[in-house]
Sequence to fold (340 residues):
Amino acid sequence: MDKRLTAVHDYIHAEMEKQHIPGLALGIWVQGEPVLLQGYGYANLEQQTPATPDTVFEIASITKLFTATAVMMLAQAGKLALSDCISHYLPDLPQAWQAITIRHILTHSSGLKGYTETPRYWETTRLDISPAAILDLVRDEPLLFPSGQRYHYDNTGFYLLGLLLEQVSGKPYGDLLDELIFTPLGMADTRVNDPYAIVPRRAAGYSLQNGVLCNKAYYSTAGTFSAGVLLSTVNDMAKWDAALSTERLLETAVLQQMWTPQPTEQKNERLLGFSVGLGWFLVDHEDTFFAGHNGGIIGFASAYLRFLREGISAVLFCNRGEVPEPHKLALAAVAVYRHQ
Fold:
C-alpha cells in the first residue's frame, strides 16, 4: 500500500480510538481524482456493520452548502436577487426581520438569534412539529445586532432560506434539491432525512455518556430542515465535489463569488480566524486556502473542505455527535497525505 495512505489510515484509527468514534468514512480527491475512499470502524455497533464510502450519514450543517447552492441557482436563473429582503417572499415574518436580505443570511450577518440557542429547543425537537413552531422559538426575540453589522452563525436564517426556496419554486425543499442537484449529478443516496424511513446502508448515530457509547436520542427533522436535514455518502459527495469544478450547477463567476470573503460592516473577520463567503466558510492561513463547512447534530459529525489553490478536496463523516471541530480531522488527514 502507498505509504501516504498507510499514514492516513494510522492517523484515522488513532483518532477514532482517542475520540471514541464508532465509524467514519473519508474521501480525499486530488485534481478531481479519488486518492482515498475509505470506511473505518462500524456504521452500526449492534450489528457490527462496517462503515464504507457508501454508508449513509446524517451530514448536519453541510446541508447549508446545498441550500446556498440552490439559492444561487435560482438567483442565476433570475428568480430572485441576493439583495431581496426575505420578507418579500415570506411576508408573515416579524417586523424586526423585515429588512433582512438573502445576502445577510448567506453571510451569517442577519443578526437573527439561532433557534438552536433557545432554552426550549431540544425539548421542542423531541416532538414532530411544524416549521412555524420552530420559528416561534425566536419570533419575539430582538435582533442581536443590525443586519450586516457583524458575524453570528445563522441557523435561523438558513431555515428561512428553505422556506423561501419552497415559496419561490412551489416545491418541497427536498424535491427542489432533487431536481436541481441530486438527480442531475446522480447523487442517489443523498436526500432529506426521514427518521421513520428504511434507508439502505444508514449509519446509526451514537453519543458518549460517562465514557460509554449509547444510541443517540431521537429528534425531529423539523428542527433541522434546510439548516441541517440531509443524508449523504462519501461516494455521493465525490459527485458533488466534481460538479463544483465545472459549470454543471453554477457559472464559474458565481462559484468564485461564493468563495470570496464578504466583509461585514465591522470588517473584523480576521479576529475570528476565518471569513465567510456566500454560504461557505473560508480559511486563508499560511500556505493554504480552503472553503468548507462543518456539521454537527445528535449522533453525527461531518466536514467538507475544498483547498482551492491546491485542487484537493476532502469529506469526513462519522457517527458520534460530540466530535469537536471535525474539520480539523479532515485537515490533518489531508496534511498527513500531502507531507508523507
